[in-house]
Amino acid sequence: MQISDSSSRILAGLLEARTGQQLTMSRRWRLETALSALLRERGISIVVWVMTVLVMGKEPSLSERVVEALLNNETYFFRDRSPFDVLQRHALPELARRRESSKRLRIWSAGCSAGQEVYSLAMLFAEQPDEWRGWTIDILGSDVSTSCIERARAGAYTQFEVQRGLAIGQMIKWFEESADGWRAVEALRKPIRFQVHNLLEPPPHPGAFDIVLCRNVLLYLSPEKKMLAFERIASAMAEDGWLMLGAGETVIGQTNKLGSDVNARGLYRLTGDGGRIEKRRNPDRRSAAGA
Ligand SMILES: C[S@@+](CC[C@H](N)C(=O)[O-])C[C@H]1O[C@@H](n2cnc3c(N)ncnc32)[C@H](O)[C@@H]1O
User: Rounded to the nearest 10 degrees, how much is the dihedral formed by the CA atoms of 18, 41, 182, 209?
Assistant: First the structure.
């Protein structure tokens, strides 16, 4: 299947309008790979026909399927492990002290794909039952993709998926074998809520999240959309909350609302909170240089 330049542009425009994600020329190969299964399933062989449907807006569900097929949903449990360790060593003990009276934590994973990131978080807490006994840990996972959220809600994974990032002991403890793979146990699914949500829209209820994860979501947003996304995220954070981005992502040059937490590499905090963020002229330079 060969997709013409004009068709590529229309599809890329549709993707960007719905999600903010840009399909750069170097990623246009994704179009053919991503769409071939959908077109086969629908029995559509002529891309021009798809364009007609999309452009004329005759079948909105098809354009939604096309957008979903073009999104990059790559994820796995405890992705890039070290940020989870930093969270556990640094942010969680501090939050445990600060929220001692309410005994409630709110966590939001924005762009959670099929949910592995969210279940990884739930495992962090479930594996320390003594520390978190009596606490309410609300975890929200959101994604712009409806099919991702349906998968995340089911908490069901193939053998291949469940092995990516999980030790055998964790897999056996937190997942039960089913006919076609593995499903997260009820105890893990209980504190989690999932919802379809576009990061560029106003943040989800209830806000004031103590920890926000937005990892590997913003990479292909235009600078303007990235700034908007950071504004949305900042407005959703508790004053003393943390943001975790993906490896290689940074807030530097994207927003002045957030800055590095020098004590916790890979975590970011709201600026203007009276000195919790070290006042360096360029707080990210050291980590950007890999120091
Ligand atoms: C590469 S996956 C990353 C998943 C997970 N955060 C991780 O790091 O493993 C990016 C996810 O972001 C979602 N996404 C892209 N644009 C979005 C937007 N505007 N709002 C919410 N989710 C979005 C995609 O659907 C996809 O599931």
Answer: 10
3-state class of 85 per DSSP?
Answer: helix
Task: Give residues with Cβ within 8 angstroms of 152, minimum separation 6.
Answer: 112, 113, 114, 115, 118, 141, 143, 194
**C-alpha 71 to ligand 1 mean position (Å):** 8
Which ligand 1 atom sits nearest the alpha carbon of residue 229?
19
**CB 71 within 8 Å of CB 103:** no
Cβ-proximal residues to 206 (8 Å cutoff; 6+ apart), any chain: 106
Residue owning tokens 């809600």: 153
Q: What are phi and psi of 108, to 5 degrees?
A: -130, 125
CA atoms within 13 A on the CB side of 48: 0
* Residue 47: how many other CB atoms lie within 10 Å: 19
Contact criterion met (CB below 8 Å) for 116 and 77:
yes
Which residue is closest in CA terms to ligand 1's atom 27?
113
Q: What is the pLDDT of residues 123-136, one digit of tens each?
A: 999 999 999 999 99
Q: Is 170 in the pocket of ligand 1 (CB under 6 A)?
A: no
Ligand 1 pocket check: which of 112, 120, 143, 153 to mutate, most ligand atoms within 8 Å of Cβ? Answer: 143
Band of the pLDDT at 288, cuts 50, 70, 90?
very low
List all residues 6 or more positions away from 237 whose beta carbon is below 8 Å from its beta carbon: 208, 209, 212, 243, 270
Going by pLDDT thresholds of 50, 70 and 90, the confidence category of residue 153 is very high
